[in-house]
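Batch manifest, entry 17 of 40.
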Amino acid sequence: MKEKIQAFLKRFSFRTGVIVIAMCVPFYILSFACLAVESFSPATKGVLWATFFGLAKTFQYGGLSIIGIDGVKRIKEWWKAKRNS
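Output type: C-alpha cells
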C-alpha cells in the first residue's frame, strides 16, 4: 500500500508540490480563526479546529511527500538567494 501511494505522489511535479504546501497556510489560519469567533459553542469550535487543522496537516505532508528531500533543498536555496539579494 505504501509503495502505491509513493508511486502516485511521484507522478506530480515540483510545482504541484509547492502549490499543495502553500494550500496549508489558509487552513492553518482558518483553524485558529474559528477559535476567535465568540458565537460558536465550544463543541463547534473543537470540531472546526480539528477539521481545518487536519486539512492543513494533510496538505503540508502531502506537499512535502510530492516535492521530496531534493525539493526541500531547492526551496531553501531559493529562499536564501532571495533574502541575500
